[in-house]
Design brief:
481 residues; mainly alpha; two-stranded parallel sheet; globular
Length: 481
């Protein structure tokens, strides 16, 4: 950490030293770590942060409902529109590479603000574009902002939340992404593409204004040596009548221990003592993406039509399943734990893909032709619901929990980059499969592959992923680091 250290004695002893409360304090002071009731400041901070998650979801969902409108008005070819759609992921990869370092240098709040500025400029460029190159520039800028947000939002929420609430609160990130995608799909069916782009500005503005009302991450403040600000932020987040001495002491002791550790660069991540953390963080993202989520999300309508089912009805059914299951995952996160939800989620996605593959196989063999469209729909819905329950959000929760503060920037950038790269590879490859050969035989093999990868995810979680429920970030990192 070299420069980012806590000065000796900077944290006041009145808050950091463990002591017995006086008689008059015993009825008014409550240990922050033992309370499961979120304060209004914590709720507001989380709400402001997940406005960025909604920005993320609205950007992902934008290109699908507006395709015909943009292509018609600006006279774009299929290739030009494909560039417009895919350049979002390119921008997100660039943002992901820089996200960890930026968040470590200017702070979590400032990084969210910076991403909002890029997204604002991008949405304005899209809304007022008259030529394709300006459309692409706008989409690229929105993608860059997304790349920053995809890292900093779950990390910020994890760092401000008590250990008994952290899982559920962090999963709200994924829930708001789902809401952003779904509502953008819905609005896009009725609104002009320029108006829809202008609506994309609103959550950016809400988050920008909200950042002035919320606290910086206490752990980030401790990392850069602002001990008194760390105390103040903890008191605001936990409540003025809470006893934060234990939590503040743990943050101080852990940060001081890292004084002797230099800030981890990208190549230091591959040292032996970081191997397990890196395998878990990167592995979950690889398996999440290569399990087929973006292939199903981006091309669900085409999949339903290939199966002989209505594309529009299938998409509506997916939205109906996705949001409640994501909300259920957030509610269960701190009750059942991360590992059980991941295991159930991965097993469900495996079964869902297998059911879709078998449906296409039977259709190819001309068996049960009346049943196969409905079994394909059921398979996609089982996959979507299972993915939303755990695999959608928990890898981001675990990524935000397991890495020590001195390597969180580099590791977070790498993990986020892997996620976006995997997203691009899967969506790009699946698109070509659909174009090259739309026969059900190709889809059968593709979904058998997805099912196998989801099955591998079950084994990976069982063998390697740690349970982080009910532990502070410092406990997790001292055990598994």
């Amino acid at each position: 950490m070299s420069q980012d250290v806590i000065e000796e004695g900077e944290l006041s002893n009145s808050l950091l030293l463990k002591r017995q409360p006086r008689e008059d304090e015993q009825t008014t002071k409550t240990p922050a770590s033992s309370s499961s009731s979120p304060t209004s400041v914590l709720l507001l901070s989380t709400l402001v942060a997940v406005c960025g998650s909604y920005v993320f979801g609205s950007a992902v969902g934008y290109s699908s409902p507006v395709q015909s409108g943009i292509m018609s008005e600006l006279s774009l070819s299929v290739a030009e529109y494909s560039l417009f759609g895919s350049i979002l992921t390119i921008g997100a990869m660039v943002g992901a590479i820089m996200s960890g370092r930026i968040a470590d240098h200017i702070g979590r709040k400032a990084t969210m603000g910076l991403s909002d500025i890029f997204c604002l400029i991008g949405w304005i460029a899209i809304a007022f574009s008259k030529v394709s190159w300006l459309l692409d520039v706008g989409r690229l800028l929105v993608g860059y902002g997304m790349g920053l947000l995809s890292y900093v939002v779950p990390v910020y929420i994890a760092e401000i939340t008590p250990k008994d609430l952290r899982g559920g609160f962090t999963t709200v990130h994924q829930l708001m992404i789902c809401c952003g995608v779904s509502l953008t799909y819905l609005m896009g069916a009725f609104l002009n593409w320029r108006i829809l782009a202008l609506i994309g500005i609103l959550p950016c503005l809400v988050q920008l204004l909200g950042l002035f009302l919320i606290s910086e991450s206490p752990r980030y403040l401790a990392k850069i040596g602002k001990g008194k600000d760390c105390e103040s932020a903890l008191l605001r987040l936990r409540g003025e009548n809470s006893d934060i001495s234990d939590e503040a002491t743990e943050i101080r002791d852990y940060t001081e221990m890292l004084k002797r550790t230099s800030e981890a660069g990208i190549f230091e991540l591959f040292r032996w003592n970081y191997t397990h953390l890196l395998v878990v963080g990167v592995g979950l993202m690889v398996l999440q993406q290569f399990g087929g989520v973006n292939a199903i999300a981006f091309y669900a309508s085409a999949i339903f039509i290939s199966a002989g089912f209505s594309g529009s009805i299938g998409m509506i059914a997916m939205v109906i399943v996705q949001i409640p299951m994501t909300a259920l995952g957030a509610l269960l996160m701190d009750k059942s734990g991360r590992r059980p939800l991941l295991l159930i989620s991965a097993a469900g996605t495996c079964f869902g893909c297998l059911l879709v593959a078998l449906s296409f196989l039977l259709q190819d063999l001309r068996h049960w032709k009346e049943v196969t469209p409905f079994s394909a729909l059921a398979g996609v819905l089982i996959y979507t619901g299972s993915f939303s329950l755990g695999m959608g959000g928990i890898p981001w929760v675990i990524m935000s929990e397991i890495f020590p503060i001195n390597m969180k920037g580099s590791a977070g950038s790498l993990v986020t980059l892997v996620s976006w790269l995997g997203s691009w590879i899967v969506s790009y490859a699946f698109n070509f499969l659909m174009k090259w050969n739309s026969s059900v035989g190709i889809l059968t093999g593709t979904f058998f592959i997805f099912s196998s990868i989801c099955g591998l995810t079950v084994a990976f979680v069982w063998k390697l992923v740690p349970e982080t429920k009910g532990r502070t970030l410092e406990e997790i990192q001292s055990i598994h680091g």
